[in-house]
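Our consortium's second objective concerns turning raw sequence data into structural hypotheses that experimental partners can test. To show how far this objective has progressed, the report includes one record in full. It was chosen at random from the queue rather than selected for favorable results. The single chain below, 299 residues long, was entered without modification.
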Amino acid sequence: MGTRKERIYILLAVCTAMIYGGGVVWNKSIMNAGLTPNALLTFRFAAVAIIYLIINAKSLRTIDLKQLKHGVILGLIGYGVMFFQMTGLAYTSPANGAFLNACYITFVPFVSRVFLKQKIKRHVLLCAVLCLIGVYFLASTGGRALSLGLGDALCLIGAVFYAVQIVYMAKCMELMQVKTLMLLSSATIAVISLPVLLLTGDAASFLQVQWEVVVPNALAVVFLSTLLGVSLQMKIVKELSPSRVAIIMSLDSLFATLFSILLKQDMIRMELLLGGGLIFLSIVLSELLTMKQPLLNHK
């Protein structure tokens, strides 16, 4: 069952997954209200960067070049995650987006192999195949064969970036505190997204939104999904392995689906139940087999 400290971090990972699941629904609500993905990305991370700049102002002078480099790189990866996930979410349902984003669990072991030189175990490959079968059914609608729409494809690309982010975040946490890493990565995302916002003309979307919908959801995204959620994730990856974190936090797909159905942003479909069920099964199996792995290694 692990140590008490480990169980606490596992519980925190589940809570973070719930927050991220809500984030999918909040982001979808904001975009449905008229704000474009680029505009949402700029607002979200500019707000977070400003807040952390205020909190972390005194320690700015202690940031060295190595920390700056890794913080910026994590921000670049984070921009890829958010850009593909939110743009994809604009073209697909919250449930589809959540389950496709959860495919990052199958990519983390392979990324860990590249960056951390960790061996890929057979059960991981088995769960990866099962997860991909789930993606197949999730992307098959109306009885037709695989039909991966633009939004679905973008969410899958975002899942690859997210896998890289989780592994690289664990590396960065060895070099600096959470608040420093949050400041550097959030500021990088904001600096990249602002010129993109201006060049694409998406800034005009701020004048055409339903603010009564955007404001409460934007506050939830900034303070819960980003400030609280990402900060918790950074602490968690420092205590648990990247693969373990990916497995547990992929429960966000389940929470996002439940929230989207309850709020009538999505409807129960056979493809959703079958595809999402297989993806979720691959997550559970991967977690159970990962927990048993230390015992198997002693035999």
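The partners drew two points from this record. Confidence is low (pLDDT under 50) at residues 294-299. Residues 4-32 form the longest helix (29 residues). Both points have been shared with the crystallography group to help prioritize constructs.
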